[in-house]
Amino acid sequence: MKNRHNFEFSPKTMLVFLTIICILLLSVSAVLKDAVKPLSAVAETVVIPMQDGINSFGVWVGDHAGSFKSMKELKKENAKLNEKVRELTQENETLSTNEKELNNLQKLLKIDKAYSQYKKVGASVISKGSGNWYNTFVINKGSKDGIKVNMNVIADGGLVGIVTETGRTYAKVCSIINDSSSVSAKSSQAGDTCVVQGNSESVQKDGTIDVTYISKDADMKEGEELITSHISSKYLEGIKIGTVSKISTDSSNLTKSAKVTPFVDFQHIEDVLVITQLKEVPADSDSAD
């Protein structure tokens, strides 16, 4: 079989070729005026429209050549803009993170001033137990930072819990919503004593934990704040716990029970303050936690 060659002409080559034909025809008509008179009509009918077409084609090529160049420039510009958007997005995320950290620090500074009578160490939460609530969690400060078991932990709002275990670079905290937690407390106005008991089921249901052992003659009112009591064996006095609600008399008619909504958001704890002062009580003391 014979090889077939496909010849392709670019628009510029075609334009040059047609232009040469037109020049040749015009030259012949100039030299052989009489001989080509019969062809004049043909030229007027065929060649001139062809020349107009060639001119239009040339203009089209010129215009689109500029468009092709503009398209490449637009693609380059678009790539630059996309890179700029990516950089700005990263900067915005960094600023948002910095703003969040600043807000957390401002909250800690506020609570630090509220309990200025105690020395404290700032720490960040590095892990927690399962679920959405901070029943127990681990902080990034330990014995090398002066952290000891039974030190009180506070955060934005008030009491978080107590240190239950320490390592050199970490410490474990049990929060007041944990089922094992028991805090000796009192009402901030009437001074009626009570015990705040952790209740993980209740806090997940309505955000409250239990208040027990309220005297039947207590003047405690709903809406009052509860704070840690002076008779606690582990918790320092005067740390805010939460707001009392749903006070009711027990079936024995000897005591009352209630609910307390903690001031601390136990679903979102990132940074805390550990009070480095321990509660001093006699070794044989029978006071509640």
UniProtKB/TrEMBL annotation:
It comes from the Bacteria. Residues 71-108 form a coiled coil. Gene3D superfamilies: Rod shape-determining protein MreC, domain 1, Rod shape-determining protein MreC, domain 2. Residues 125-275 form the Rod shape-determining protein MreC beta-barrel core domain. One of its GO terms (biological process) is regulation of cell shape. GO terms for cellular component: plasma membrane. Keywords: Cell shape, Coiled coil. Involved in formation and maintenance of cell shape. PANTHER family: CELL SHAPE-DETERMINING PROTEIN MREC. NCBIfam families: mreC (TIGR00219). Belongs to the MreC family. This is Cell shape-determining protein MreC.
